[in-house]
Amino acid sequence: MAGRSSTPGRSVTSRALAVLGAFDTGAPRLSLSEIAERSAMPLTTVHRLLGELTDWGALQRRPDGRYEIGRRLWDLGLLAPVQLELRQVAAPFLLDVHTATRDTVHLAVREGRSALYVERVSGRESVPVVSQVGSRLPLHATAVGKVLLAAAPEDVAEAVLRAPTRETRHTIVDPGRLRREIAEVRRRGYARTAEEMSLGTLSVAVPVRVERPAGPAVVAALGIVVPSHRRDLLRLVPVLEVAARGIGRELARAQPFH
Amino acid sequence: MAGRSSTPGRSVTSRALAVLGAFDTGAPRLSLSEIAERSAMPLTTVHRLLGELTDWGALQRRPDGRYEIGRRLWDLGLLAPVQLELRQVAAPFLLDVHTATRDTVHLAVREGRSALYVERVSGRESVPVVSQVGSRLPLHATAVGKVLLAAAPEDVAEAVLRAPTRETRHTIVDPGRLRREIAEVRRRGYARTAEEMSLGTLSVAVPVRVERPAGPAVVAALGIVVPSHRRDLLRLVPVLEVAARGIGRELARAQPFH
DNA sequence: CTCCCTGCTTCCGACCACCGGAAGCGATCG
DNA sequence: CGATCGCTTCCGGTGGTCGGAAGCAGGGAG
Taking every annotated instance into account, which residue ranges of this chain make up the domain HTH iclR-type (chains A, B) (predicted)? Predict the structure, then answer.
C-alpha cells in the first residue's frame, strides 16, 4: 500500500476483511474504536474503511453510532452453499420430524474438527439451548458430532480422538472408549449422547447420505435432543432415518453429482 | 491505488466489494471470467482480489473452479439484525401458526419499496412458492406488503401507489382503489390478497407492533398463504394476531428501546 | 497426433491512492 | 468551565496496486 504504513506488506483488501472479521457472535454491534482495537489497526484507517463498507451496504450504522452487519451481507450469506443447497432442501424434513415428536431437531455438517449447526427447529424452548444455527460444537460430545466423526477422514478423527475436551462431567474423554463408540456408530448407523455436552439432555442422530459415483457419502447429520428424563429415545431413530433418507434423495436430485 | 489504472478514482475496497456484488440469487456460482464481466473489471485484477477473498474465507472455490460464497460470509450474515433480532425471536411463533394451520407462514419487513421476506415456514409445498427467505416482492400485491405499506411513511406509500406493477390479471393497479384498500387495512388491522401476486393463492397478513417511547411501531408483517379454493381465510386472522402480539412482546423485551 | 481456442495463472515496472499522525470537533462528566 | 473521550477531517510521502503481456493447461476439432 502506501504512506507511512506501520504494518507494511498488508493489503488493503485484507484490512477491509479484518474490519468485517471484528464482528462475531459475541460482538455483533461495535463502535469505531472497538473495531479498531479488535482488528489491531489505527483508528483512522478503520474509520475510512468503515465508510466504504457502510456505503456499499456491507455494514450499517445504528442510531447510536455503532456498526452492525448490513442487509447486503445478509443477502450474500443466503447464497452460501450450506444455505442454498442443504438448508433449503432439509428444512421441510426437519419440520416433519418436529411435528411428529415436538422435540428440538437439528442438522449439522462437519467443518474441520467441529460440528457446524446449519438448521434447527424447536418450538418454545423446553430444553436449554446450546446449539444455534451457525454455532460450532465439538464432534465427540454431541450425537450429530459422533455421526460426523464416524464418517470423517482418518486424520481428522485421529486429531479429535487424541485430545477430546471435557464439556460436562459425563463427556467421554478416554480415547479408547471414544474409538469403540465411533466404531459402534458405524455399525449401528446412529449415535447417541447422554448429558455429554449439556446436562439434562439426551440426544440421538443419524447420518444423511447422498449417492455419489464413488458410493454413498455422509454429507450431514440429523439429530434430535430431548430432556434426560425421557426413556424412549431409541424409538426416535426410525423417524430420523426416514427424514434423513428423504433429505439424501432430494439432495441427490438437486445436485446430480458434486 | 496505483499503476496504469484505467478507472482511476476507484478504491481498492470498492473493487473487492464489486467482486462480492457479482454474486446474486440468479448467479450464486461464478467463474473468474464471469465475475470479471459482471463487475466490469479487468480479469487480472479480479483474479488477484478473488485470491484474497478466498484466502480469508469470504468466498470458496468449488472443485470445478468456480467460486461461491464461503462459510465466513454465511457466518457474518447470521449476525445481521434481521436475523439476530427479528428472525430468532419470531421463528417459534411462525412455527406455532404453522402447526395450528398447516399452511405456509411468513414474516416480512419493509425495505425501501419492497417487502423483504425474512422468515418462512412451509411444509411440503402444497402451494407454489413465490416467496423465499431473502426475496423481495412488491408492497401492493402481497398481503404482508399491504400491511407494511399501510404503515410506511407518506413519501414511500406515495411512490408505490403512483406506479403499481401488474403481477397477475388480478393485481390491483388503480391508485385510487389501492389507496382505499390501504385505508381499510389501517382500519381493520389486517390485509388480504386474492391471486394478486400469484394465481391460485389467497393470503392474509397482520402487522407486528413493538411498543416504542413514541408509541407503537409496525416493524414487520406476519402473513399466511393458502390455496385459493379455501373459503375460511378470515378465520386465520385471530391466529395471526395472537402470534404477532407474541412476537411484538418478545421484541420489546429483547431490545428495550430502538 | 498437432493445432487452435478458451480460460486461468504468473510476472513485473510505473505510478497514484492509501496510510495514519496530528489537529479539530462535539458531547459528556466532574 | 476545563478535562476527557470518541469520532471526523486533513494532507504529504511512498510502497502497494494495476493490468497488459506472456505463459500454461485442458479440451475439442481436424
Answer: 10-71
CATH number of A12-76: 1.10.10.10
Q: Does B175 touch chain A (CB under 8 A)?
A: no
CA–CA dist A52, A54 (Å, integer): 5
Picking from B225, B104, B243, B208, the residue whose alpha carbon sits closest to that of residue A95 is: B104
Check if the beta carbon of residue A222 is closer than 8 Å to that of residue A237.
no
Judge contact between A57 and A70, C-beta under 8 A. Answer: yes
DSSP-assigned letter for residue A234: G
Chain A residues whose beta carbon lies within 8 Å of the beta carbon of residue B116: 71
Chain B residues 79-138 with CB within 8 Å of chain A: 79-84, 88, 92, 95-96, 98-99, 111, 116, 121-125, 132-134
Region B92-113 average pLDDT: 94
C-alpha atoms less than 13 angstroms from C-alpha of B152 in its C-beta half-sphere: 27
Question: DSSP of A164-188, one letter per residue?
Answer: PPP-STT----HHHHHHHHHHHHHH
Residue for cell digits 470479471?
B36
pLDDT higher than 60, residue A3: no
Minimal Cα distance from A58: which residue of B?
Answer: B17
Return residues 183-222 of A near B (CB < 8 Å).
Answer: none
Q: Does A250 touch chain B (CB under 8 A)?
A: no
pLDDT (average), residues B87-114: 94
More confident residue, B163 or B118: B118
Are A58 and B124 a contacting pair at CB < 8 A? no
Å from A141 to nearest chain B CA?
23
Interface test with A, best of B78, B83, B93, B106 (most A CBs within 10 A): B78
Q: Residue A142 above 80 pLDDT?
A: yes
- Give chain A's mean pLDDT: 92
* pLDDT per residue as tens digits for the range B164-188: 999 999 999 999 999 999 999 999 9
Least confident of A138-147, A203-212, B8-17: B8-17
pLDDT digits (tens, 9 = 90+) for B202-248: 999 999 999 887 789 999 999 999 999 988 899 999 999 999 999 99
State, as a whole number of angstroms, the distance between the CA of B208 and the C1' of C24.
45
* A87-96, A208-217, B122-131: range with lowest mean pLDDT: B122-131
Fold category of B81-254 in CATH:
Beta-Lactamase (3.30.450)
In chain A, domain spans: 12-76, 81-254
Kindly state the DSSP code that residue A124 receives in the 8-state scheme: S
Given CB atoms, is B240 within the 8 Å cutoff of chain A? no
**Strand D bases within 7 angstroms of protein beta carbons:** 6-10, 12-21
